[in-house]
Design goal:
- The protein has two domains: 1-44; 46-89, SH3 type barrels (Roll), CATH 2.30.30.
- It is an alpha+beta fold and 97 residues long.
- It contains one helix and five strands.
- It has one helix spanning 3-43, and strands at 50-53, 58-64, 68-72, 78-82, 86-89.
- Strands 4-3-2-1-5 form a five-stranded antiparallel β-sheet, covered by helices on one side.
- The model has no long low-confidence stretch (mean pLDDT 88).
């Protein structure tokens, strides 16, 4: 291979590299930021916080453990769920049930 052929081969990979860069900045990076934000929210849960589970249940955190959270669904029902099943923390009074 001479120098012209090597340059041509490098130029043919340039669109592929550009496509990967666009894919990274539009899809991968924002998803990683969202996952990090969700992990921080789950790690910061405390007793008394209002949450929504992935199943759509509104609940109050009673106790946090290493891998699980004990939640109160109503005055009589307390259950233990995996931390991964917390969808979001209810922040405002308008969202509370």
């Amino acid at each position: 291979m001479n120098g012209a052929e090597q340059g041509s081969a490098l130029l043919s990979f340039l669109p592929l590299v550009a496509l990967f860069a666009i894919f990274y900045f539009l899809i991968i990076r924002p998803q990683q930021k969202q996952q990090q934000k969700h992990k921080e929210m789950i790690d910061s849960l405390q007793k008394g916080d209002q949450i929504i589970t992935n199943g759509g249940l509104y609940a109050e955190v009673v106790k946090t453990e290493d891998n699980f959270i004990k939640i109160k669904l109503n005055e009589d029902t307390m259950v233990k769920i995996d931390r991964a099943f917390v969808a979001k923390k209810v922040e405002t009074l308008n969202e509370k049930v």
